[in-house]
Batch of 2 targets.
Target 1
Amino acid sequence: MKNAFYMEGNLWLYRLYLWVAILLWLPVSLPAVDLPNLTFRTITISDGLSNNIINTIYKDKRGFTWLGTQTGLDRFDGINVKSFLQFSGRTIFSIAETDSVYLWVGTDKGLWRLDRKTDQVKLVTLDTKSLEVRSVFVSQTGRLLVGTTHGLFIYQENTFRKVLFGSNALSSTNFLTGIVEGHKDTFWLTSQGGLIEYNIVTGQSEVYTYQGDERFVNYFSCLTLLKEKLYLGTAGNGMLVFDIGKTAFSICPEVENGYIKSIIAVNDEIWVGTNGSGIRIISASTGKELSAIEHTSNADAICSNAVYSLLKEDDMLFVGTYMGGLSYTPAHGSFFSVYSYPELFNSYNMNVRAFWVDADGKKVIGTRDGLYYISEMERRIRHYTHRNSILRSDIILSVKPFNRDFLIGTYGGGLYLLHRNTGELSFLQSDQCFMQGSFNGYERDVNNKLWIGSSKGVYVYDHLTGEYEVYNSRNSSLSVNSVFSLKADSKGRMWLGTGGAVFMYDRVDGVFKSDVFPEHVLPYTKSVRFIYEDKKKNLWFCDDKEGVVKVDESFTTFEHITIDDFLPNNSVMSIVEDPKNGGLWFATQRGLLYIKEEENYHKIFSLYDGIPGYIFNSPVQITDDNTVWWGNERGLVCYDAVKSWSEIGTKRSSLP
């Protein structure tokens, strides 16, 4: 028994020694926490950037990402890049906004103000010379501070007041590189000659320099504030930490890279952009490195380890680099889904041109390859084509409820009824006009008659008697036969979008009027494919090439909206109001956009948010359960306005 106990004790000690040896063998630099697998996408000059050197990144209140490059100013909306040629050849160091109109841009050739409504730019005179502007900062109260190579300028009462730190404007202390706001009217500024504390009310200032090493040059390149500590990037000595309460510096040994180009605070972490070692993530509590993000041979990695600028927003990270362009993590989400009925039907990869979701869950889906009728309760799916039914065309343009059945419009093949109870198809009527041609849906007028758009004019159909009239270029003032869209507004007016103009039917005179828009608006309403009226009685006319024209209730104010404003694309296929939150959804040929005008907010959704394809078609519907449905080139897309908004609504860009 004694020998057995002795052997067991030795075995226990052996295992203990083994574990200690393993722990000692492990590298001490093992990250304390793991980042989730970050997938980066990269855009470069090939995608429209003015330059592959990104000096600064700024997200405005509308959700646009602005990029200051070595030779210009770019705007990125998540899909497209727009370069502002007015800034061509200028090095952009800093960007900020004071309101929804003006963007202030610090460059190597002075301070510029961009009017985002008109794209007009103005050089702002700060001093007698065109100063190099390294930092533009807007305080919590909206005050603009401009850090230059020759001192600080504060904008108030439409003029700039100059502040020098020391009498010599050319001193290294007046070469300002960064600004953050502290407490009680205090601002902290980095310079090539030290760290500056400045009280904007009293005008008092104090310059702090690091004295721990005589070889240290107090050239601070950037800074961020977290709680009561300032984290300072240097131009050769890594990162320093300044304790505001103790007014004392300390070195952060975890950041060994000499030149720090960008620092941001993320929760209790400091993210450090280095010039050669990627991004180092430091715990503010312990001072230890938690993780790193580096360039590798992996195609999904950041494009360069020379990180010049950083922006972290919720689950998105933007990384501006030297010569590599912009790397960013697209926001992966499940806000949207593609309709499927497990084991029986999946709309994914179907080009959904038309659809209707009934109150009892039945779905009628029109595609370029025929018509689908889905009854989940009966577990029944039917697919209609010209080969197995009376359909004369497989391209379905419209699906609308009609009494208890569904009215089906096709491209070149006539107008049909899909009978709910039997699932059989028939022509609306046996008249030849309904058995050929293209049909694009209908609207009900104040007399409960259906106005049906077609390639041969508009049909006014009495669904109770089956009688109808047709208006076209031969017998009426409707001079264009191709009617793409219709809208009966709250004032009883009937609007028709055609292949040449927008018409309004005057019920009093019985004529179609095409002169309702002023001359400057007419060019943008030549091919209106969708017309929408919002709760404020504004009318929105969506052209397939020219963006959107918004008209107020009194028809006196006209606004033309394009990609130069916030649209991802000028082909807007539909607009609908969010049933939960009141904003507007724009379905375009380049993604989905949500805007809330009163908050000056917009957000563009892409493939990474769950939409299957960028190209949307015209049909849109809101069902009783507050689900929004869209027809997309790659499926029937749905969005739960109640569930999804808990995520979308909190992830605001100040929410673009």
Note: Residues 440-531 form one domain.
Target 2
Amino acid sequence: MQYPQGHWDLPKGHIEANDSDNHATAARELAEETGISEIEFIEGFESSTNYSFKYKGKRTKKQVYWYLATTEKITVKLSKEHRDYMWLNWELALDMVTHTETKGVIKEAMIFANSHGLS
């Protein structure tokens, strides 16, 4: 997904009080950002990344948990948080995403998917 600043990244977001667990957060954020709510998480894959950034003059740390999921839906309804989206294969996704940490997650997911006959 392309963010207003121009960089490309995977859908992600923040935990909210009503989220029962990380999967609930991931599903809610995906639905908010893409309009896709019918997903099935693939068991056995979870990755996390850490990074920091400046927000209102303060250094903020963030940890992101990543999951794999499948869906039959291909039509995306972009949120106002994003400028564009693309469905990509693993190799093109590696080329497209901006952040090194996200590239690492995509590589992990690709290895997991290939080793479990999911690609």
Note: The chain has one domain: 22-115.
